């Protein structure tokens, strides 16, 4: 998967035009054709995929399925990721088939397993348990990233079942819903990331239980602790991600200093903003430490993905080190490359150009896509005119 999946692009195409595009089957047909056309540059085909994700719905999911015949494991894994994010029941058979296909690339199988968990249908338990630790597929030697994915996916489905109304974790579900809603006066939601994640942040659990939230050093420790279940390490990761964009309480600090006069108010607000910025940077650096986390390439690739959601320039050195490490699993290096592409600072381009020649094909292709992201900042989906043109040419 790549972090550049543009949840933040909600206003990119006016809603009225988006509705028209969604009502036109030719749009989906043509985007599906672009996606499946091996004569077209991979980066452009990725844009067709992201446009389908943006349009959403069953027609998009069915158009995406057509791309699975492609040679590129990078593209196939991205198709699986997007199908998970689209949450369409019609995708369950193909995703199940991919997880169970021992001839398929492990990165694609991993992403299909994660997509089944994202769709969250209880019928997926059987295949996910087959490849989770102790399952028949895992015991038969399935690749470790797939086994780790299925461990996490089963934990996620079990967690979701406990969060149902009346269930023992219904309180956590309420905290999660509140965290995703905008604050008073239109303030941004505490949990601003719209992706369907493999695990919920652990502050949901702390808050529901009335416990103090874990500190950044505590979360870092959990992220790096290989003795903990992967689900708990992921929960720490997503908590750190949310802390990395937490707003300051500058206005509250200024209000508290109101009686001391305007200069004291301005100072209080500035100090609160500086403290918040330091805390955000500490959260990013704690996540960066996860790029060296022991015992799970799957976890490290998720760390690289999360850094792509945050897009902080201070993560660039850690990401470059990850991409340069030829002993690292290609799925981690791939994710680091794409995240570097979405950060796009000047030093990134040179390193991505170099690794376009990497020995691992998935890394080579990721660098091509990442360079396209650097060069086409903010236009990673087709705009409406391009979609309409594509449909008219179908
Ligand atoms: Fe990926
Ligand atoms: Fe992945």
From TrEMBL:
Cofactor notes:
Binds 2 Fe(2+) ions per subunit.
Nucleotide-binding as UniProt keyword: no
The record lists the catalysed reaction(s) as: [eIF5A protein]-deoxyhypusine + AH2 + O2 = [eIF5A protein]-hypusine + A + H2O
According to its UniProt record, the EC number is 1.14.99.29
Q: Where does Fe cation 2 bind?
A: 301-302, 334-335
What cofactors are annotated for this protein?
A: Fe(2+)
Query: Which top-level enzyme class is recorded in the Swiss-Prot or TrEMBL entry?
Result: oxidoreductase
Its annotated pathway reads:
Protein modification; eIF5A hypusination
* Residues annotated to bind Fe cation 1: 77-78, 110-111
- UniProt keyword list: Hypusine biosynthesis, Iron, Metal-binding, Monooxygenase, Oxidoreductase, Repeat
What's an example of a GO molecular-function annotation for this chain?
metal ion binding
UniProt xrefs under PANTHER family: DEOXYHYPUSINE HYDROXYLASE, PBS LYASE HEAT-LIKE PROTEIN
Entry function? Catalyzes the hydroxylation of the N(6)-(4-aminobutyl)-L-lysine intermediate to form hypusine, an essential post-translational modification only found in mature eIF-5A factor.
Similarity comment: family membership = Belongs to the deoxyhypusine hydroxylase family.
Protein name, entry field? Deoxyhypusine hydroxylase
Q: Which organism is it from?
A: Fonticula alba
What are the top taxonomic ranks of the organism? Answer: Eukaryota, Rotosphaerida, Fonticulaceae, Fonticula
């Amino acid at each position: 998967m790549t972090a550049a999946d543009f949840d933040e692009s909600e206003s990119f195409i006016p809603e009225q035009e988006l509705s028209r595009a969604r009502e036109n089957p030719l749009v989906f047909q043509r985007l599906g054709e672009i996606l499946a056309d091996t004569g077209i540059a991979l980066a452009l085909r990725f844009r067709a995929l992201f446009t389908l994700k943006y349009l959403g719905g069953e027609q998009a999911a069915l158009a995406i399925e057509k791309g699975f015949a492609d040679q590129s494991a990078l593209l196939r894994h991205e198709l699986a990721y997007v199908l998970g994010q689209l949450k369409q029941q019609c995708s369950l058979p193909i995703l199940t088939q991919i997880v169970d296909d021992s001839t398929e690339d492990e990165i694609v199988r991993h992403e299909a397993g994660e997509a089944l968990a994202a769709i969250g249908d209880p019928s997926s338990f059987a295949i996910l348990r087959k490849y989770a630790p102790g399952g028949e597929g895992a015991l038969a030697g399935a690749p470790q990233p797939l086994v780790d994915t299925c461990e996490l996916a089963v934990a996620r489905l079990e967690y979701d079942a406990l969060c149902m109304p009346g269930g023992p974790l219904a309180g956590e579900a309420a905290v999660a819903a509140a965290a995703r809603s905008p604050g008073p006066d239109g303030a941004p939601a505490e949990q601003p990331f719209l992706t369907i994640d493999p695990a919920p942040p652990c502050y949901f659990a702390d808050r529901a239980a009335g416990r103090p939230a874990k500190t950044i050093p505590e979360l870092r420790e959990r992220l790096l602790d290989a003795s903990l279940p992967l689900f708990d390490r992921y929960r720490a990761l997503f908590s750190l991600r949310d802390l990395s964009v937490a707003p300051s309480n500058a206005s509250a600090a200024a209000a508290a200093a109101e009686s001391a006069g305007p200069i004291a108010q301005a100072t209080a607000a500035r100090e609160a903003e500086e403290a918040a910025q330091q805390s955000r940077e500490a959260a990013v650096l704690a996540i960066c430490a996860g790029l060296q986390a022991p015992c799970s390439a799957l976890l490290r690739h998720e760390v690289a993905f999360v850094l792509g959601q945050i897009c902080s320039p201070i993560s660039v050195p850690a990401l470059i080190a990850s991409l340069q490490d030829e002993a690292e699993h290609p799925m981690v290096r791939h994710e680091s490359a794409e995240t570097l592409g979405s950060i796009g600072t000047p030093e990134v381009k040179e390193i991505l150009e170099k690794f376009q020649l990497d020995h691992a094909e998935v890394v080579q292709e990721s660098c091509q896509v990442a360079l396209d992201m650097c060069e086409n900042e903010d236009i990673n989906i087709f705009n409406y005119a391009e979609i309409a043109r594509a449909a008219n040419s179908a």
